[in-house]
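At your convenience, could you comment on the folded chain following this short note?
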Amino acid sequence: MSQANSTVVPDTEKGKGGPPTGGRVATGGRDGGSGGAFKQYKPEQGKWTRLGTFLGLLLLIAWGSYFLYDRLQVYADGPEAWRLLVSTGIPAAVLVLLGAVAWWLSYSSRKSSDFMIATEGEMKKVSWSTRREIIGSTKVVILFTVLLATTLFVVDLGLTSLFRWIGVLKG
């Protein structure tokens, strides 16, 4: 195993201050080394969670950029080049820069990528209720809510009548 950017820690050096890798090769690249700010970290894992996070962030950033564009329309009274630069250029720059940050957080950052990979793994372990169970539970909740509201209404009428009879409420 001869790689330019790899380090082999033999089994005999375990416990001597080095990482206990057990003779494994620690390399750069796909599994966490260098490779640029926009290289995907563990691209084969957590695809759907990362995609959903990226699209959600992108939607928020697009909405924020549109809000900024709308607020910068007060500069419409200047020269054409200035108006175009301020009212369109700034929101576009914000969209591009924050979009790059969203990509980095969703795909390149080790901490956030590991969190999303672990989240997707845990979601696959969840035992989801069936449609029939959800419908049954919803009926129970609605029935209980109606019964509780009716009981509170009757108690309120009774207390109102009692307070009027003893003279606390007038009317």
About this structure: The chain has four helices and two strands. The chain has a mean pLDDT of 81. The chain has three domains: 1-35, 38-125, 129-171. The two ends are 94 Å apart (CA to CA).
